[in-house]
Amino acid sequence: MTTSLINTEIKPFKATAFHNGEFVTVTEADLKGKWAAVVFYPADFTFVCPTELGDIADNYDELQKLGVEVYSVSTDTHFTHKAWHDASDTIRKIKFPMIGDPTATVTRNFGVLREAEGLADRGTFIIDPNGVIQAIEVTAEGIGRDAADLVRKIKAAQYVATHPGEVCPAKWKEGEATLAPSLDLVGKI
User: Fold this and answer.
1) Catalytic (active site) residue 168
2) What's the pTM value of the predicted model, to 2 decimals?
């Protein structure tokens, strides 16, 4: 990424996803009106990717309770997603849309395309109901992400969105103290 996408609105796209045994169309409009987590990964039938997607699948019910829809994205086709879903016990647990992005339009829109390889970096984007990106995490290919931390970050983003004037400090967890930035706090933390 050459420029930050934080606080920018997601760009238009149209793609086909494998979801609940069917091929469905997904656009940027589908990501609006609720919280969304868009999770990019390099490729189907690989090594770290199924561990991450399986972890998200294991936390999907909690994410749904938070009003969050998850969209996984790779530059594979929706046909490949179906084949992977049918072949892997781990991937078979997935209930969220698996977007195929063979043209790399979605991946490029989010700034996580490795152009020379045609593959996505490991990127996670938390998007608010207005379609505005609130958090981004990008890791190197060999570093897997943790769905529990995704849940924590979403809870923090939702808290900040509903509590103007408050911010969540490092390691904040739901129910813990927040901060109200003010001149009185400067130099006292």
Assistant:
1) no
2) 0.95
